[in-house]
Amino acid sequence: MISFPKPEELPESQRVVITGIGLTAPNGNSLTDFREGLLEGRSGISDYEIRYFGKTLAGVCDFEVKRHQSRKEVRRGTRAGSVGIYCANEAILDSGIEWDNFDKTRVGIYIGVTEHGNVETETEIHEIRGYDYDTSFWSHHHNPRTVANNPAGEVALNMNVVGPHYTIGAACAAGNAGLIQGLQMLRLNEVDLAIAGGVSESIHTFGIFAGFASQGALATHDDPTKASRPFDVNRNGIVVSEGGGLYTLERMSDAKARGANIYGEIVGYAMNTDATDFVLPNPERQSQCMDMALKRAGLNADDIDIVSTHATGTGMGDTLECDAVRRVFGESKKTYVNNAKSFIGHTMGAAGALELAGNLPAFKDGVAHPTINVDDLDPDCELSGLVKNEARQIGQVDCILNNSFGMLGINSALIVKRI
């Protein structure tokens, strides 16, 4: 059996903390706005229309694109790149790091994505259609826009980072995967600062809407704000959204030395694979992932105050995750459960990073944000600690477990502890 040292037993040079957060979500462009939206029950879902597919619903971000980019950068780059650049720069500002004087060779960028390149390819095909598919009209920017490392690479170019940059394809577990990669690179002493998390530009590709619709997994509702409804008996699918959440991660020793504000310490993490189905989750593997994260953190299930669920609003997905959560946490009255997709839809590669961000302020205010739109709880999704429709004051919060799962059976769990 694998054993792990407790995080508090490690030297501070091996302990990794969060010191800055930059985000854009369909209901807020900063942690303060995002958190207020979650506590007030403010949905970010609206009517949306995209070529070929037509009218649907989506979570659309409205951030100031040119706050950190030139017009040329925007024209040459991608929407995922713009999201990443905005979030990375905002995270650096939030961290208080003296960026101009920081050694850029010791900065790493680790950005998770669900998919990348579909938007640009669909757009180019649409454009050359008007020229009888003459590929001489194909954009010379297409290849750098669609290479797998693009989102992280655009951030590196914008911020003059010359350390390693990776874009991590991990389906909808990618936000957590970016954070895990950043932590590991800090522990390996490959970098002194990691900019890590996830981004999504998914609403700009008609293919993702068509794909979910063909699976019968695309949400519909007369009221867009009620379309994303995890755990509700009348849930009918996913609301596709864009967004981004990037963090600055540092060694605890470095953060303390410069007097940084610390949001929390990443004390546990795990990733595993179902290896059973393309899309249908496996609750046994999901529970094993959570158990491994707890073991790495040196914690018991009862030590977790908030579980942030992945639940997307699909029938089987929500039910099977609830099964997995019950396997780990039983009928614990101490552990509260919530979900941010009910507010912002499914931000794909950004989901795990944004959902974690929404809960981190609970370390200070002791409030668990709710899952909204649970008008008629599905009995198969009954969880004793589920926070429904209204925020709940739960007292001191010490530990948060953040679930993020994806297609092809990829699972991730991340645990952050209050300092």
Question: What attributes characterize this protein structure?
Answer:
single chain, 419 residues, alpha/beta, Peroxisomal Thiolase, Chain A, domain 1, 2 domains, ten-stranded mixed sheet, two-stranded antiparallel ribbon, 14 helices, 14 strands, 32% helix, 21% strand, globular
Question: What is the fold's blueprint, element by element?
Answer:
Blueprint lengths: L15 E9 L6 H10 L4 E6 L3 E6 L11 H6 L2 H17 L11 E7 L4 H12 L12 H5 L3 H10 L5 E5 L4 H14 L5 E8 L5 H9 L28 E9 H6 L6 E10 L9 H15 L8 E3 L6 H15 L6 E3 L2 H4 L6 H9 L2 H4 L1 E2 L23 E2 L5 E8 L3 E8 L2
Parallel strand pairs: 4-5, 4-6, 9-10, 9-13
Antiparallel strand pairs: 1-7, 1-8, 2-3, 6-7, 8-14, 11-12, 13-14
Helix pairs in contact: 3-6, 7-13, 10-11
Describe the fold and architecture.
With 419 residues, this protein is of the alpha/beta class. The protein folds into two domains: 17-257, 3-Layer(aba) Sandwich (Peroxisomal Thiolase, Chain A, domain 1), CATH 3.40.47; 268-417, 3-Layer(aba) Sandwich (Peroxisomal Thiolase, Chain A, domain 1), CATH 3.40.47. It is 32% helix and 21% strand. It contains 14 helices and 14 strands. The protein has helices at 31-40, 71-76, 79-95, 118-129, 142-146, 150-159, 174-187, 206-214, 252-257, 283-297, 315-329, 341-344, 351-359, 362-365; strands spanning 16-24, 45-50, 54-59, 107-113, 165-169, 193-200, 243-251, 264-273, 306-308, 336-338, 367-368, 392-393, 399-406, 410-417. The strands form three sheets. A ten-stranded mixed sheet has the order 5-4-6-7-1-8-14-13-9-10, sandwiched between helices. Strand 13 (399-406) and strand 14 form a beta hairpin. Helix 3 (79-95) crosses helix 6 (150-159), helix 7 (174-187) packs across helix 13 (351-359) and helix 10 packs across helix 11 (315-329). The longest helix is centred in the first third of the chain and has 17 residues, at 79-95. The protein is globular. It starts with 15 loop residues before the first strand and ends with a strand.
